[in-house]
Amino acid sequence: MAGNLQTIKDIRNYLGNELGNIFPQEEIVSLTRVVLISVLKIDRIRILIDDCAPVVSPEHATRIKEISERLKTREPLQYILGETIFYDCRIKVNPSVLIPRPETEELVELVINENRGFCGKLTDACTGSGCIAIALAVKFKEASISGFDLSQEAISLAVRNAELNNVKVSFCQADIFDIQACNINKTDIIVSNPPYVRNSEKKAMRRNVLDFEPHEALFVPDDDPLIFYKAILKLAGEMLDSGGKIYFEINEAMGSDMIDLLRSYNYTETAIYKDINGKDRIVKGYKNG
């Protein structure tokens, strides 16, 4: 029982037994490591060297049992803990925003690598938790970073996340399908990870996503899967000057369609980048005219 938990080894055994019929072993190991770091407030080294030391208080034991029970419902651990780490930034999350993915870290990495020393203006469209804008603000200390999203709940959380990471980012609520209401300023770079999962792809998704993450930030209609990209490119017609850059995270099945779309909006030097799993995940282009 949770009340008998005293050591890190006890926690490992407890979570292994409680979650063994729900998650694969490698996922349990990963979940346990995150729970240990979060609940006990210790680093990874101490987890290894203090395996049998009595470090668990009754309050810790109660919290671990609560986390275990919620994990059994497939609730994402990030929502249970209320935060996650994204590109070395501490990002608060709740069910009003998507949980940042490793693929989105790859988008951030590409923007950083291709724009060393950037000190202009950058806008994150459909910002959600603000993770992209905040990670870029940490790296581009002289740049002017902004982000917008339709959800006021998301914007409130993004503002909090910027404060948590000691960066200045200007966030506002705006609807990309109502350009006149956006009132967005000129920018040199647009970055976006908008909704891109087709409704027909729901059946292949895991319960922890379908049951807990906001569908409005995930799904698009099958008959117009690029609807958000079109709206952002239309907005970019007013925001980006000639030579400005745009970076998108995309549905792995939409790579060639996205290149065609960028070219139809007169973008040049378009390119597709694959993620760590070898899937088309990012496209970019330069505005021409």
What does this structure look like?
There is one protein chain. With 289 residues, the chain is α/β, with parallel strands linked by helices. The protein folds into 2 domains: 2-72, no CATH class; 99-287, Vaccinia Virus protein VP39 (Rossmann fold, 3-Layer(aba) Sandwich), CATH 3.40.50.150. 42% of the residues lie in helices and 20% in strands. It is built from 12 helices and 11 strands. The strands form 3 sheets. It has a 7-stranded mixed β-sheet, sandwiched between helices. The protein has a two-stranded antiparallel ribbon with strand order 1-2. It has a two-stranded parallel sheet with strand order 7-8. The radius of gyration is 21 Å and the shape is elongated. The chain starts with 7 loop residues before the first helix and ends with a strand. The mean pLDDT is 92.
State the secondary-structure class.
alpha/beta
Question: Unreliable runs, pLDDT <50, ≥5 residues?
Answer: none
Q: Identify the overall geometry.
A: elongated
Number of helices: 12
